[in-house]
Amino acid sequence: MSNGYLMHIGEVAERTGLSVKTIRDYDAAEVLHPSGRTDGGFRLYSEDDVARLLMVRRMKPLGFSLGEAAILVDAVKMLDEAQPDVDLTAVRARVAAFIRDAETRRDALGQQLGMVDEFLEELRAH
């Protein structure tokens, strides 16, 4: 859980390597909402929010959609907060399904990288 320190979107962008626009787009797409807002309406993010944004960023190369990212972010948040009225067994099963899917996607990327390596070897041979 976070320590209570909240960051403005610029600091979050710097820490995550995501653009301010992308972070705002994630909020608009219901992927991840800021933990708070200033009196002036500026978004404020917690350490937990940063961790979840990094998770979404790591999902992108695997080809997960923003909808899938929203589902996983919600599941991870439920596990982190562990509310007594939430069926954590079902949430853990959802996360396990993402793990299996990510492993399959990683294997496919590995095969593609192998083809790229073969292609580069062939080009370098000329």
TrEMBL record:
Indicate the segments forming the HTH merR-type domain, all copies: 6-75
Q: Which UniProt keywords apply?
A: DNA-binding
Superkingdom of the organism of origin = Bacteria
List GO molecular-function terms, semicolon-separated: DNA binding; DNA-binding transcription factor activity
Any Pfam family hit = MerR_1
- Look up keyword DNA-binding and say if it applies: yes
Matching entries from SMART domains are given as: HTH_MERR
Write the protein's name.
MerR family transcriptional regulator
Which organism does this sequence originate in? Curtobacterium luteum
